[in-house]
């Protein structure tokens, strides 16, 4: 399984980076649209929508909303959307911590609505980054933080893991793995600060943002794990060998991207 995951990652990572660096903004957004719509198809399954026709309708509605975002992006309050997303993720944190006693998400229609609250802010975050000067660097930094948190947690958890992080949601995750992932985020943050020649204050803020980004990326992973456990499925789909579905690869990004974009906006204006 690990070899298959590595092989798929070796293929996907360069493709993702090529999309970030080689595609102009308009084409990048269309690529992003495709990823979000694939994720929406899988989210419909997490929501409990089993009929193909209803799942297709869920994706079509998502496509219509994204089309409106294309048309009115310039006048939409992007930062307000991202900030609202952070509030939603605080609610998700409560649900994860209280699982299986938590309420407010277990009905099919509730999980369907949550899918839009998760995926659309992620779309806004990536479009916002790509449209920014040196936006490609920001996207790669976000990738490194999220991937670093995941990889660091995996190996640290394998080597030192003893204390379960959220046993009712994801029994395989440990607190030691979380710490290892955060250490990796710290290393990435320091490396970026040196590369960008940030001041001491900016470096401190960069480290704080990176650690928070790593933490919330774990929440994104845990939240999807909670939904999958509730639905009784292991992966969101079988689209990516060794990785499950698109959602299984971007669940951490959906949580991390809004916080990261808001944090970098603050960092760049201070």
What does this structure look like?
By secondary structure, this protein is mostly helical. Helix content is 79%, strand content 3%. The chain has helices at 2-22, 25-47, 52-72, 78-98, 108-130, 135-160, 175-196, 200-231, 246-269, and strands at residues 164-166, 170-174. Helix 4 packs across helix 5, helix 5 crosses helix 6 (135-160) and helix 7 (175-196) runs antiparallel to helix 8. The longest helix is centred in the last third of the chain and has 32 residues, at 200-231.
SSE arrangement:
Blueprint: H1 2-22, H2 25-47, H3 52-72, H4 78-98, H5 108-130, H6 135-160, E1 164-166, E2 170-174, H7 175-196, H8 200-231, H9 246-269
Antiparallel strand pairs: 1-2
Helix pairs in contact: 2-3, 2-5, 4-5, 4-8, 4-9, 5-6, 5-9, 6-7, 6-8, 6-9, 7-8, 8-9
| Count of β-strands | 2
Strands ordered across the widest β-sheet: 1-2
Structural class call reads mainly alpha
| Oligomer state of the chains in this structure | single chain
Gyration radius (Cα, Å) is 18 Å
Task: Give descriptors for this structure.
globular; 2 strands; mainly alpha; two-stranded antiparallel ribbon; 270 residues
A few lines on this structure:
79% of the residues lie in helices and 3% in strands. With 270 residues, it is mainly α. The chain has one domain.
